[in-house]
Amino acid sequence: MPAGRAKREESRFREEAKRLGTRLRSLRDEHGMTQEQLAALAQVAVSTLRKIERGHVIEPGYFTVLSLATALGISLEELRDQG
Known about the structure:
Elements: H1 3-30, H2 35-42, H3 46-54, H4 62-71, H5 76-80
Helix pairs in contact: 1-3, 2-3, 2-4
């Protein structure tokens, strides 16, 4: 794969990660939850949740994201929806 293509793909995933983090934080705020509360309910480390919300985790694990969505009482599709 050409170096330029790999760089574009990495950039695309970085933007997706930022959008996911922003959406997750927004939904958490709407539910009136702290990071600690959501992390405990989802059984995810608080540090992991913080990194996801900041967009620092480019490819969060499927079950991590599923656990967070479930803890918020929403589907994966709703978590991904940008409103």
